[in-house]
Amino acid sequence: MAKKKSQNSSSTICLNKKAKHEYSIEEKFEAGVALTGWEVKSLREGRGQLVDSYVVLKNDEAWLVGAHFTPLISACTHVVADPRRDRKLLLHRRQIDKLSAAVQAKGYTCVALALYWKQGRVKCEIALVKGKKLHDKRAAEKEKDWDREKQRGLAAH
């Protein structure tokens, strides 16, 4: 019997930490990502970034805009690698309808939170979010600090 490759302890490729700070997350979705060969190889090396990336809904399709996948140096020379191209997200029709209704009617924004591996495929965690006000960001920061202090107190005892 052939042995399976051992999985990494963390299947996360990259996170969008800025999104969790800037927005309050309402609902999360899991989407597949349509990638080319060099992009998959680049992600296996951990060369993906989701900073300033978001999801656009047009023509009843979802597109990941602003994600940056750095091409490998050893990539094929006849392939033109565009690291910031728009990538199609693979979602069910009901999910796309739900996202577009929330974005148009309720004033939500759709943002990419993470890229990760799931059964050998790249998945993107996207979320419906609302922007935080400055005082909301401060309150969240205070709450995070208070939780940290509580954990330190419990660890000391």
From TrEMBL:
PROSITE patterns: SSRP. Residues 136-157 are annotated as: Disordered. Pfam families: SmpB. Its main location: cytoplasm. Keywords: Cytoplasm, RNA-binding. Gene3D superfamilies: 2.40.280.10. It is found in: Cytoplasm. CDD domains: SmpB (cd09294). Residues 137-157 have a biased composition (Basic and acidic residues). Belongs to the SmpB family. Required for rescue of stalled ribosomes mediated by trans-translation. Binds to transfer-messenger RNA (tmRNA), required for stable association of tmRNA with ribosomes. tmRNA and SmpB together mimic tRNA shape, replacing the anticodon stem-loop with SmpB. tmRNA is encoded by the ssrA gene; the 2 termini fold to resemble tRNA(Ala) and it encodes a 'tag peptide', a short internal open reading frame. During trans-translation Ala-aminoacylated tmRNA acts like a tRNA, entering the A-site of stalled ribosomes, displacing the stalled mRNA. This is SsrA-binding protein.
